[in-house]
Amino acid sequence: MIVDLLGMPTPFVLFQEWVNEFISWDPNQCGTDKISLPRNKFWVPDIVINEFMDENTAPHVPYVYLYSDGTVHDALPVKVVSSCNLNIYTFPFDIQNCTLTFNSYIHMVMDLKMFLGKPVDKITKHSKMVMTTMGEWELLDITFHKYSVGSEDQFSIDELAFHIRVRRRATLYVVNLLIPSCFLITVDLFSFLLPPQSVDRSSFKMTLILGYTVFLLIMTDLLPVTGNTIPLINVFFSLCLALMVASLLETILITNLMHGSAKFSHVPRWIQVLILQILGCLVGLPSKPKEPSDEEVKASTVVADSKADENPPEEKGPVEEEKEDKALEELRRLGGDLRAIRLQVDQQLSGSQSSEDWMQVGFIIDRLLFGIYILFISVSFITIIIIWVNSYSP
Question: How much is the pTM?
Answer without folding.
Answer: 0.68
